[in-house]
UniProtKB/TrEMBL annotation:
This is Glutathione S-transferase. Gene3D superfamilies: 1.20.1050.10, Glutaredoxin (3.40.30.10). CDD domains: GST_C_Sigma_like, GST_N_Sigma_like. PANTHER family: GLUTATHIONE S-TRANSFERASE. It comes from the Eukaryota.
Length: 204
C-alpha cells in the first residue's frame, strides 16, 4: 500500500498544529505543511468540516480537530504505542499536558479582566504547572516517558508545550526544577529530523 497524501493546514505559527507537524517530522513522514493567512482562512472556512483549523487532508478527504490529527500523526510516525497499557499511559500523560494548554489559553487569551488574569496566571505558574510537572517527572523512564528506546507522542507534546507555550507566553514558568522532563525535551530535540525542522522554521 502506498503512503497516503497528507496536507496539514493551519496558520503560520505553532498553535494547535505544531505537535502534529513535529510528530510528522520526528517520524520523517512526508506531508504538505500548508500555512494560511487570516484572509485565506476566511475564504476556506465555509468549506471546512467544522469551520476551523487545523485540518488534515488525507488522500483528498479533509479532517478536523487538533487532537484527532495529533493522534493520527503519532500513529503514522510510529509514536503511538501498540500495547494498550502503554497507550493508556501515554494518553494519561497527554491529557495532563492538554489540561495545562487549555488552562493557559483560557487565562491568557479568554480572560478580559486584567486583575483576574494576573491572579490566575500567578496561580497557574506557582501551583498548577509545578504540580503537574512534578507528577510527570515521576513517569519518565529513561530518555523518554516509556523508556530509553520508546519515544512517544507525549514526549513531543511536552517539548511543544515548553518551547512554544511556556517560553513564549509564560517565561516565569520553567522545567528547570524537573531534570527528567528537561532530559526528555533534549532527547526530542536531538532527533535529527526534529532538528532539521526546527532549523528550517526558526523565527528571526
Amino acid at each position: 500500500m502506498s503512503a497516503p497524501q497528507l496536507k496539514l493546514t493551519y496558520f503560520d505559527g505553532a498553535g494547535r498544529a505544531e505537535v502534529a507537524r513535529l510528530l510528522f517530522a520526528f517520524g520523517s513522514v512526508n506531508f504538505v505543511d500548508e500555512r494560511v493567512t487570516g484572509e485565506e482562512f476566511a475564504a476556506l472556512k465555509p468549506t471546512l468540516p467544522l469551520g476551523q483549523l487545523p485540518t488534515l487532508t488525507v488522500d483528498g478527504t479533509v479532517y478536523s480537530q487538533s487532537m484527532a490529527i495529533m493522534r493520527y500523526a503519532a500513529k503514522m510516525s510510529g509514536l503511538f504505542p501498540e500495547d494498550p497499557v502503554q497507550a493508556l499511559r501515554v494518553d494519561m500523560i497527554s491529557e495532563s499536558l492538554i489540561e495545562l494548554v487549555n488552562a493557559m489559553v483560557n487565562i491568557l487569551f479568554m480572560e478580559k479582566d486584567e486583575t483576574v488574569k494576573a491572579e490566575k496566571t500567578k496561580k497557574l505558574v506557582e501551583e498548577a504547572i509545578p504540580k503537574t510537572f512534578g507528577v510527570l517527572e515521576s513517569f519518565v523512564q529513561g530518555k523518554f516517558f516509556l523508556g530509553d528506546d520508546k519515544p512517544s507522542y507525549a514526549d513531543v507534546q511536552l517539548f511543544d508545550l515548553v518551547e512554544n507555550g511556556l517560553k513564549a507566553r509564560l517565561p516565569e514558568a520553567s522545567v528547570a526544577a524537573f531534570p527528567k522532563l528537561e532530559a526528555v525535551m533534549e532527547n526530542v530535540k536531538a532527533n535529527a529530523h526534529i532538528a532539521a525542522y526546527l532549523a528550517k522554521h526558526k523565527k528571526d
